[in-house]
Description:
Number of domains: 2
Order of helices and strands: EEEEEEEEEHHHH
Amino acid sequence: EREAKAGKLKLEVRATGVGLIPDLDQIVDLKPKEFDVTAVENEGVSVSQFDKTEAGNAINSERLWLVSMEARPDLTRHPETFSFGLPKQEDHEVTYQRFEDADLVSVEPDIMLQQEYGTPEKSWMVPASVVFAVLILLVIIYRLIARKAPVVTSARYQVPEKITPFTVLGLLKDIERTNGLSPTGKQELGVSISRLEHYYFETPEGEEPDLNAVVHRWVNQTR
């Protein structure tokens, strides 16, 4: 993990055996789950000596690969574990090692990574941002709707189109019956009704009542 700052995880595979060592993919099943293999460096087979334990001209050879890997770009979090490749032949002897400071120590096939690799993508933030924006919009709409709309009230009683003693008295008596005025209001309304009845239907005395003013006063008072 010495090149973790550069985002690289490097694996050295060293194979020794009798005869010529085949290619890497014939020896090891190297398929790291959360890493992509970006490069494989190999200098070919190195013959060390003739194998004295084998009959004939058998040779001992060695082959070394340096595998470079990087965390997959579609990950949503940093890889936490790494699995070494397993041998394709069960009779192959395998030793797994890693550096601990400057020392090589034996480990299991699966190890916990000590460094962080890659830059987890933030694609999840796009739908999250959209959802957040929609929620904000809904809150704004709700607040606009929830604002108290201006109360528009219409007059409970309407001024007659034609203002005559008959229409005005009819309206005032209707107000008297149904409006639920205070005792003082009822008394004043009763005085207005009596004066109109007396002036127009009994003996007209004094100044003529202003029917328009009377009817507007009581219509406005009963809003």
